Amino acid sequence: MISCNNSDNDPDYVPPTLKNFPESGLLGQPISIQIENMEIGKIQVFFDLEEADVKYTADNEIMVIVPTSIKRYNPTLKIIDLNENKTILSSTFTLKKPVITKYSSENISFNETLTIYGENFDTNRNLIKVLVNNEIAQIQNTDFNKVEIMIPTKLTTANLEIKVQSQLQEASSTLPLVLKNPIIKGTQLNQVWLQQTLDVNIENVNPNSEFGEVFVNGIPCYFSASTNNIIGITIPPGPYKDFFVTNITYKTAGLTTSYDCNIKILNNFILVDHIDNAQTEFNIFIHNNKAYTFSYTIPGTDEFERYYTFLEFSPVTEKWKQISTFHYTGHIVNAVYDGNNTVYFYKLEGNSQSYSLSKFNMDTNKETAIDLPNNKIVAPLLFAFHDKLYLYSGLDRTSTSTTVRNKKYEYSKLDNTWRELSSSVLSELPLTSEHAVTTPIDYVFIGEDIYISYGLNYSTFKISPNLSVTKTPYALSFQYGNNIIVKSSYDYLYNTKTNKYVAVDILNLTGYSNNFFTLNNEVYYLRNSWSMYYQNTIYTQKISKQILNGLL
Length: 552
Known about the structure:
Largest sheet: 8 strands, antiparallel
Shape: elongated
CATH topology of the largest domain: Neuraminidase
Helix content: under 10%
Number of strands: 55
Number of domains: 4
CATH superfamily of the largest domain: Kelch-type beta propeller
């Protein structure tokens, strides 16, 4: 068989002649091509490899649709005569470039619609993309000369740059466009509880909480935001100086708004500081109008190999700071202060199950070893005042038995000597429990006397310089205004001098802590973290004057 085309069979055949064609257009839109001597159905039009759909044909014209499937903005336009299987045009065709001419406003908020005016956009949302600071914006409506968008929330700066991607090209605008500044209009409560959610009215809020920050009295806090110009703040436990929220600050996209207020905190306590990554177990003591305690970490797997640091609390700053001159690695079983300038350390010496004693001078930072009357006493009870250290009871342990000791010793700091006390001296004080591992004593000094307590479930004992003992059947809490305050139950704080009491939820107030200290007529205490803030730390909290003054 022999194949032939029209020109072979028809000597009068006149091939089509291209007269005119557009050099540019828009995706999905028609273009008109003028061709003389065109046979209907015998013309194909391609943009690169994509064949164009024919919208209609006439004697000297064919109208085709620019394919939306082309891959580049400057494809090759080809026109093929099927009669002769001949390409009658191969030329570059360029999509019209998008142009941004203006915005509906120069200032915009997150919950407002921005209209971008221009040329050569698109009616098909799948073929147009708008970027705001390189973040994709949600398109609400689009046409060839305008597109309406919602401002994206993942923004870090307020000056906005708009880019429109359409017709397989991108247009960037230098027109000014700035986010409206957020404005705090007020709060929906004038008193709050810690951890409570406080709703704050803010104009121009960013509904994406991840790209915003809220500070309460300068404290970063958790919050949630929405599109109704309200944020919900979780009131942090502190650190505060007083029982009021005095400022709320909101930040987003480099913009800041601040609101001064006077919102009362209803709790009986506030957090003033927190100790991170450390534990404390000894009584906090006061020296030269500052509070001190020893904290430790366990760097390895050995529970008895601890790293100790010395912390100082100032009543002016209400913050703890580490004293760099003191470090100790080992195991301090107990540490007691004598009310003057000396701290006594009772230490466990490695695996020998023997103990050592030393005294640390707070004024000179010098530590001196002290010989013990017996270096095998487990968990003795220790307290010190008037240049004397008292060591009594404790346990004698062997591999087969545990025996409670009843001997009592007095050490004189002035002449560095020990003497054993008679059984009648301090006889009112309970002996160590045979199940005890260590028994730190809570103590405070008032005048010439020391008040000691063995813990939450024990009595408080007033010991005078002549070693006479007066017992109060409640656990010691703190001193306030030369008054001894005790826990009369889990529901009351009780003043042993005035016989006044205040009903409180002790567990909610202090947890299981009994580590109180008083500075400048303010009462502080330590307790484990109890909120979503500062987890796995030790909180230092301050009791409200409402409770304290109710005890006077």
